[in-house]
Amino acid sequence: MKHLFVRALLSVCVSFSAGLNVAVSSDEKIDDRESAHAGRLPTSGFSDLCLLLNRKVHPAVEAIDLLLNDIRRPYDIDSWRSYVTESSEYIYQMDNRTKWQPLLHSSPRIYFLSPLRPFSLIEVEAEFGRFLRRLQFPGKLAFHCVEGVDVQKIPHSPFSRFGVLQVAGQFNFLTSQQPERTPIPGYLDDDTQGSRASLNFLSLLLVRDYLFGKPEVQRSLQPLFAHLPSDAYSWGHLKPAAIPEGQRPEFIKHLQENIGSLNIFAEWSDRPEFGGEDEPLLKVFTAAPSFQAEGVSEPSGFEHQVSALLVPVQYRAVAQLAVVKSLGLHGRLPLHLTLVGQGGLNNPESVMMKAFQAVFDVAKSYPIDVFVHAGNSKDVAMIRRNLPEGARVDSMTAAEFFSGSFPVSSKSAIKKE
Fold this sequence. Notes:
The chain is an alpha/beta fold. The chain has 15 helices and 11 strands. Strand 4 (233-234) and strand 5 (237-238) form a beta hairpin.
């Protein structure tokens, strides 16, 4: 019985290492029977990233969610504001910390799960390449431009099941409007989609705030920017305009040569605060540089170059995670994308064309439905003119999104220029 239990635990992994990447030879035998289990991938060694993709909610997040049951209350504006404020005080008090904090620091070998840490683009690329060579399921990528869905309510849709949700924020995997830590109650005063998505998964937000909200860890979260002065990079906010003109060519060269060290953070969500499907979402936190004060330069200018180097590669990584996750599913995987950097951060629209092209190039041969969320008709128009030529695309209303039905009038027509 003990051996059967160990084998069951092993079957949820694609690869594992306690901080090390284990190379897998190209001629390694793969038992494809494992892929018969929905959402599970064939075993081929051990890596942290594979454990993330196969494991569900982290035990520390689950423990916090259970603690919140003691004070959780139905949503209304006044009572929920006080609940969010009380939750951070309640969870961080010493008696409760002893119930969940050890789960953050225990050996992954004990719990057979990925440690809560960022993953570099190099790690994502390696995991994607490992499976791209071996497993492909027939299916055609389709884009669905969805208008008017509050990101807090995405879990209410049947299209959220087994899905991947990209969330915008800062490069330290938190959300703040200023280059400083925003206390969790402050998320209530930020109406951007990153804050709204975070509040809907409050237990995961509490863990992220605990892990990444400390001043002493800020530089280590993104080694790519660690050399920049604080006026150019602080608390996850990258402000290229603050980099002296004489240092800009060297910074562009630095990004080009070291972009693979850029980190993203991915983790399974806990139960949504506002209800939704039982199956948790894999949330991937991405970011864009800030041009809030000055806007961006011409396409050949410095600010434009920085955005074009940093944003599309993250969309590519999100698509790679979705592809690997889709390989074990008996059906189509939903991938929810947002317009990272296109709001108050003033990133150039043309960068989204490169970002959508990166998603298309990675996932075009896989059974993935990409739901690109737009706040209004202006966003819809921007999305549609920047989607790749040859992509299958339709427009979806909020009603269709929540009913779980695809548009009747448009069967994902192929976009033609």
